[in-house]
Amino acid sequence: MQCEHEIGLHPVAARTPAGCEECLKTGSPWVHLRLCLTCGHVGCCDSSPGRHATKHSHHTQHPVVASFEPGERWAWCYVDQTEVDVPEQVLPYLRD
Ligand SMILES: [Zn+2]
Ligand SMILES: [Zn+2]
Ligand SMILES: [Zn+2]
To answer: Around ion ligand 2, which residues have CB less than 5 A away?
Structure first.
């Protein structure tokens, strides 16, 4: 399904395609990566020590992230707390 928070998103390229923006600065490890579909922030998942994707969403109110793992095509809405479809316009910004 799509949710209302995905309507009007203008996806942008990942700001730090090499990994989690905060973890890269501190040298911390991460498990999986998530891409903020509002601003292109790359953050680590909730299985990672930093949980920077979730922290970013809470700080910025940016509602939807997509998996930034190779080959994965799913998105998560923090407001609705549910998995949602990846909007078609986001696909070029995800990893093969
Ligand atoms: Zn939503
Ligand atoms: Zn963001
Ligand atoms: Zn992180």
So the answer is: 36, 38-39, 41, 60, 62
